Amino acid sequence: MKKKALRFNTKTIHGGQSPDKAYGAVMPPIYQTSTYAQSTPGGHQGYEYSRSGNPTRAALESSLASIENGRYGLAFASGLAAMDAVIKLLEPGDEVVSTNDLYGGSYRLFTQIFSKYGIAFHFVGMQDIGAIERHINKKTRLLWVETPTNPMMNVIDIKAVSALAKKQGLLLAVDNTFATPYLQQPLDLGADIVMHSATKYLGGHSDVVVGALVVNDKELADKLYFIQNASGAVCGPMDSFLTLRGIKTLHVRIQRHCENGRAVAEYLRAHPRIAKVYWPGFEDHPNHLVARAQMRDFGGMISFIPKGSSYKDAISIVEKLQVFTLAESLGGVESLAGHPASMTHASIPREEREKSGVVDALIRLSVGIEDAADLIADLEQAIG
What we know:
The chain is of the alpha/beta class. It has helices spanning 8-14, 55-67, 79-87, 104-113, 129-134, 158-168, 180-183, 218-231, 237-247, 250-270, 288-294, 311-320, 350-355, 372-383, and strands spanning 72-76, 95-99, 120-124, 140-146, 171-175, 193-197, 211-215, 274-278, 301-306, 325-326, 336-338, 363-366. It has two domains: 8-247, 3-Layer(aba) Sandwich (Aspartate Aminotransferase, domain 2); 250-383, Aspartate Aminotransferase, domain 1. The protein has a seven-stranded mixed beta sheet with strand order 1-7-6-5-4-2-3, sandwiched between helices. Strands 8-9-12-11-10 form a five-stranded mixed beta sheet, covered by helices on one side. The protein starts with 7 loop residues before the first helix and ends with a helix.
């Protein structure tokens, strides 16, 4: 009998998983080992050295592939390590087109590391397909998309960018960190590579640093597996275990993130001291209809600008928060607040930041799964 395909909520718990063969453990054991016994040179039971492969990491990679509707998953030591592997598919002289509203660490990796090795990067507003096309030339090899973007929440039409990539014979990679596969599955929309900072929503508890890639094409997967092994930026078995544990509650957590995100976004928009709120769920948000088409809901990430639009106003608010924690990162069960200009996006020159809207007064919220009334009360006392 053909096995019935699992729906998403079931995949988070069972996708790519089975009880441990040794003793039937429901959760994959933490194989805290660097090497494996061999009966003869090359005679092993599927694993020889944990950089090349580890059973706990393999369980995580199977889960990642399952929840993204992909065939091959790869787990890395961080999201940036996963990105590093993708760019290593390229050669000197190749070019990349990426969004101009990009996570600061991604921008730093592109401009301060790989640009030194002869790879050129162009940053454009990818909501405009024409702008992407104008930057493509015979040297272009990769389109790198974030959607929703960090921190401006811009929404990019993955299907439209995929059609352009296929027309031009280019690879399309999508950073799906903000949306997660619960809200958006880029491979189904035509992407070649999906990337996650699994540190964020997939892990979900702010206790691990992990990155992930998921692909469908075997040749592409083999190239990435080679880079993963050769470069060695793999995640360890404990981090794999913690991330796999986090994925098992992804669906219920994201539902609450979305509920709370909507409540907080609507509160902020109605507040007399707030000038602008960026959240894809608003009907007048740029590309809202695209977000509705390619996402199940609109997530728990919100950015806003207080009236007065000054650095001082933003800092005053984030320093007064008590339930929201002022900290880097996002996607954990606890609510976090950040000041992108001085924190996550500080590596981007101010002139470049401000072109994409990342001004000194901008505040970014990662809305957690606490009681929404407590989060709103905390914002109320901080904003005044």
